[in-house]
Amino acid sequence: MGRHLLLLDFDGTITQHDTLDSLVSLAITAPRPQANDGNDGDDRSSALTALWQEIVRDYVAAHARHVAGYTPPTEERTTLELELAFLESLKVVEAASAGRVSRAGFFSGLSGEELEELGRRAVALGVATHSCSGGDGGAGENGEGNGEKGAVRVRKGLGEFVERMGGEEGLWDLAVVSVNWSGRFIKGVVAGSCPAGDRVRRIVANGIRWPDGDIEGPQELGGEPLATAGDKLRAMRSLREGLEEKKVAYFGDSTTDLPCLIEADLGVIIAGDGESKLLKTLRRLGFEAPHVREAGAESNLVWAKDFAEVLRSGVMDRIQCEACV
Q1: How far apart are CA 134 and CA 281, in angstroms?
Q2: d(Cα 262, Cα 274) in Å, to the nearest integer?
Q3: Confidence label for 320 from pLDDT (cuts 50, 70 and 90)
Q4: DSSP single-letter state for residue 190
Q5: Does the CA dihedral 101-104-107-109 come out positive or negative?
Q6: Could you report the per-residue pLDDT of 179-203, keeping only the tens digit for each?
Q7: Residue 50: closest CA among 97, 103, 104, 93
Q8: What are residue 201's phi and psi, to 5 degrees?
Q9: What whole-number distance in Å separates Cα of residue 134 and Cα of residue 157?
Q10: Closest CA relative to residue 110, chosen from 18, 217, 29, 45
């Protein structure tokens, strides 16, 4: 029997927080060949940092305006169709922000290898600034935010989860599906967090083109940017092609993961508690997602705090047994 497909979101699922600020912050301060423009490195970093802060403020404001002006409003979107239409409408906001980031030159001159190294460095900073390593790349049980500038911390249990699920004796092929701007940065974070990180065999995410630093989409989407929930679903379906008889498990934490979680044979929501935005959205749409400790054999949507809880629950063993039938 062939292996089944296990897909992991990155920001907020593999990691404890969104990592775009870490990626940009580390890229800004990464060594570059000296430019003959009369400015020293500190001046350049300060200018780019101020520009990044402006882009973040503008994005938050544009997102809030879009949500406030969208019809129907949140409380009236009680079907999956209505919610997916809203999520797809956010593409214009995401595209505008990504365009500004490309034009800003945060990543210009950085090769793929250097972006991977930024990912490993981000994990090392996370370990250095967090005492609960537990063999999981510095992950604690809780904790949102980056700590030291550029630091990334992964979810508790990630290392053991990747090793067990992606082992040769297991049934799962592991892959990442992410709206993050750099698949190579993701690869560096996974490698820096997990001794068995090479068992994540594929990363479907946007890329940063060398040497101009522009953001480009993955081949699974024909080079179109991966930015919305609908884009993630299309990427998942691309990976699933030819696997009609195989099981697909999907792990995610945000509304961009919503359609993938629902369409997968098993959807696992990663959340700090039962009141996350995604879990509230699912309840509004009529979907039940019990905690993994309380999930029955019929539960196709469940939630857990981290990968350690998933492993303790045995939910993956259940679906593996189903897959063997």
Answers
A1: 33
A2: 17
A3: low
A4: H
A5: positive
A6: 999 999 999 999 999 999 999 999 9
A7: 104
A8: -85, -15
A9: 8
A10: 29
- How big is the chain by its Cα radius of gyration, in Å? 20
pLDDT over threshold 80, residue 104: yes
> What are the sequence ranges of the domains in the chain?
4-31+38-119+154-324
Amino acid at 162: V
C-alpha to C-alpha distance for 113 and 121, rounded to whole angstroms? 12
Distance separating alpha carbons of residues 294 and 157, to the nearest angstrom: 20
d(CA 79, CA 296): 24
Neighbours of 188 (CB within 10 A): 25
Query: What's the fold here for domain 4-31+38-119+154-324?
Result: Rossmann fold (3.40.50)
Distance in angstroms (rounded) separating the CA atoms of residues 28 and 184:
16
Structure tokens at 174: 């592991």
Through-space distance between the first and last CA atoms of the chain, rounded to whole angstroms: 11
Query: Two tokens at 48?
Result: 């780019």
Q: Which of these, 73, 47, 72, 56, lies nearest to 18 by C-alpha position? A: 56
